[in-house]
Specification:
Layout lengths: L2 H12 L3 E3 L3 H11 L10 H9 L5 E6 L5 E7 L2 E8 L6 H10 L7 H8 L7 H14 L8 E6 L8 H6 L3 H21 L2 H14 L13 H21 L4 H17 L3 H24 L4 H13 L6 H8 L3 H12 L3 H19 L4 H7 L5 H12 L3 H8 L4
Parallel strand pairs: 2-5
Antiparallel strand pairs: 1-4, 2-3, 3-4
């Protein structure tokens, strides 16, 4: 039996609507069919979409809305399914007035409300939960150990923080997300790495499908789309901070390649933070040390390609300047020639490899772009005052 066939069978058996909410159109139609009053704000299409994106595959959610209407939400084959609306009790006119008073003296004709709910079946919620489990089991989905989560909109004080956020107005969530994007851009503009990463994490939590890796819709393709949006925000901030367009494109392009080749969502999320750190460091250097766009671009190229054969002529060609001009400008701003900066970068990375890996001296030499081990030892001793072997021994690691 397919999922649509199972929903149709269950609806025929119980008279409780069983609806597959697999797309925005189905969700919009569902909201249009059952929203009776604005107090049922979860039946706003955007809010419902946000709520469905938070469904956990191991949960069955029983929602009681402010008007006492019940729904059961769950996932079947990673697709959202809702059983309902249904009611658990019959109400008198006095019951209705008491319900409206509890909602802040809601002004609503009792006859209209009773007419709205009269088509909905009356059944105990535990029976509907049992039917939900039967539906899942017949679809071959094990659900014996699933968590039952109750969302009681009639008593907001019983909500936990996550539940409250699901029901916050969609416009409020969008406003906060926009404000967080602005803070992210501001901190990148200032080169404030730690604050920018914190902003990104906050922004990350506003994207519905990224809050829980198990949630429906949270796929590696979604994560790649999220990464592209983040790159755009960062690029704008970097341009405003004075980072040259060519360097901006290079950094962003290399990050896009990393995301494209990532095999897990975690790798993509780590790339977000790495990219923010890299941009902030470059902007910080630009602001505090006064490095020009040319020198920033040269430093970036050296620090990211030190393991390759780099010549001043090739670097100057890459940056579209003459070798003499590049060397002169680089030395004026950093106090080092590009060649000396390359050597220092290589030795710094070599020192880290010696202290943190079991690579042989020859392997460390090759990894930093120096194929002649003897020459590597000479350069390392010049930089650190001792041989690579002595340095590793002094660090007390991998003896």
């Amino acid at each position: 039996m397919t999922l649509p066939e199972a929903c149709s069978f269950l609806q025929d058996l119980t008279q409780i609507p069983a609806t597959l909410l697999s797309g925005s159109r189905q969700q919009a139609l569902f909201c249009h069919a059952y929203q009776f009053h604005p107090v049922q704000n979860y039946l706003n299409p955007d809010t419902l979409s946000y709520f469905l994106a938070h469904l956990n595959p191991s949960q069955i959610v029983h929602l009681t809305d402010p008007l006492g209407i019940h729904f059961i939400f769950t996932l079947a084959d990673r697709l959202p399914v809702v059983l309902g609306p249904f009611c658990t009790e019959l109400l008198t006119a006095s019951d209705c007035h008491a319900l409206f008073h509890g909602l802040g003296s809601l002004r609503l004709p009792v006859t209209d409300y009773l007419a709205y709910r009269s088509p909905f079946p009356v059944m105990e919620d535990r029976q509907v939960l049992h039917l939900t489990r039967c539906l899942l089991k017949n679809l071959g989905i094990a659900c014996d150990d699933w968590e039952i989560r109750n969302l009681d909109c009639q008593n907001p004080d019983t909500f936990d923080q996550e539940d409250q956020e699901i029901y916050r107005p969609y416009s409020e969530l969008i406003t906060e997300r926009y404000a967080t994007e602005q803070r992210l851009m501001e901190n990148i503009f200032l080169g404030n790495r730690f604050a920018a990463i914190a902003n990104w994490r906050d922004l990350h939590n506003y994207v519905a499908y990224t809050r829980n890796p198990k949630n429906i819709g949270y796929t590696i393709e979604n994560a790649r789309i999220s990464a592209a949006v983040t790159r755009t925000v960062i690029r704008v901030a970097a341009i405003n901070a004075g980072i040259p367009a060519v360097l901006n494109d290079k950094i962003s392009g290399e990050s896009a390649s990393i995301v494209r080749n990532a095999s897990t969502i975690e790798e993509i999320n780590k790339e977000h933070e790495r990219l923010i750190s890299e941009y902030c460091q470059i902007i910080y250097d630009h602001r505090t040390r006064g490095y020009s766009g040319l020198v920033l671009s040269a430093i970036y190229h050296i620090e990211h390609h030190y393991s390759q054969a780099i010549t001043i002529a090739a670097l100057a060609k890459e940056l579209e300047v003459s070798p003499n001009y590049l060397t002169s400008r680089f030395h004026t701003e950093t106090g080092l020639t590009p060649t000396a900066y390359l050597a220092r970068t290589r030795m710094s990375q070599a020192a880290w490899n010696l202290a943190n890996t079991r690579l042989s001296i020859h392997q460390v030499s090759e990894q930093v772009g120096i194929l002649d081990s003897n020459y590597f030892v000479k350069l390392f001793k010049r930089e650190y005052g001792e041989t690579p072997s002595r340095y590793r021994e002094k660090m007390g690691l991998f003896k």
